[in-house]
Write a structure and sequence with these properties.
241 residues, alpha/beta, Uracil-DNA Glycosylase, subunit E, two-stranded antiparallel sheet, 8 helices, disordered C terminus
């Protein structure tokens, strides 16, 4: 069984992809004016949330001036604003905003993570960078023993989830399931749900609306979450080493 704290230390210390190391550090050294003077995290990001989570929310990678800056995935950017507001409405988060690691955000029955742990140029990891990072996700799934639903935010996360579940020994159905919003497929003991990524491109154009993302998390809760399992439970994101 994977030890989650040990895995987090390995993630944070990783320098396996030179292109991503250079990019995340370049972004930190040259922030936009609105973040001038802030100290960036500029390291890989482990997931965070409730260690007894039944729902895993899987993104693509940290944003260069979001998670790469704040030290917590989906924190401090517009995508995270949209995501955490929906998690709050679903009862999976104690508040609707996420601006910093110490802002009091707590997840309930949910864990948020990403396929790639470093911010990539253009939000596009290479296939090799994806494959280098995937073993972290496999071990994360192993460590989060209660997870039964994986919500994939976008096609890249959907593909990464299928690859990780296959690597973990759960045969992927054939033909290979295609990504789509509200797509649903069983992979071993897990249910994989698709959701359009809460990027500004999707939310500003109406490709992804609040009712659409809320319906996905309502479905995730219907599949796994029972209010009596952890009544009133509040689990803070784990500290980094």
């Amino acid at each position: 069984m994977t030890d989650l704290a040990h895995l987090e230390r390995e993630v944070v210390a990783c320098r396996a992809c030179p292109r991503l190391v250079g990019w995340r550090e370049e972004a930190a050294a040259n922030p936009p004016a609105r973040f001038a003077g802030q100290t960036y995290w500029a390291r890989p990001l482990p997931g965070f949330g409730d260690r007894d989570a039944q729902v895993m929310i899987l993104g693509l990678a940290p944003a260069a001036h979001g998670g790469n800056r704040t030290g917590r995935i989906f924190t401090g950017d517009r995508s995270g604003d949209f995501l955490f507001a929906s998690l709050h409405r679903a009862g999976l988060a104690n508040q609707a905003t996420s601006v910093s690691r110490d802002d009091g955000l707590e997840l309930r029955g949910a864990w948020v993570t990403a396929v790639n742990r470093c911010a990539p140029p253009g939000n596009k990891p290479t296939p090799r960078e994806r494959d280098t990072c995937l073993p972290f996700l496999v071990r994360e799934l192993e460590a989060l023993h209660a997870v039964r639903v994986v919500v994939a935010l976008g096609a890249f996360a959907w593909d990464g989830a299928l690859r990780a579940l296959g690597m973990a020994g759960h045969p992927v159905p054939r033909p290979r399931p295609r990504f789509g919003h509200a797509a649903e497929v069983e992979v071993g003991p897990f249910t994989l749900l698709g959701c359009f990524h809460p990027s500004q491109q999707n939310t500003f154009t109406g490709t992804l609306t609040e009712p659409m993302i809320d319906a996905v998390f309502e479905r995730a809760r219907a599949l796994t979450f029972d209010d009596v399992v952890h009544p009133g439970k509040r689990v803070r994101n784990p500290p980094y080493p």
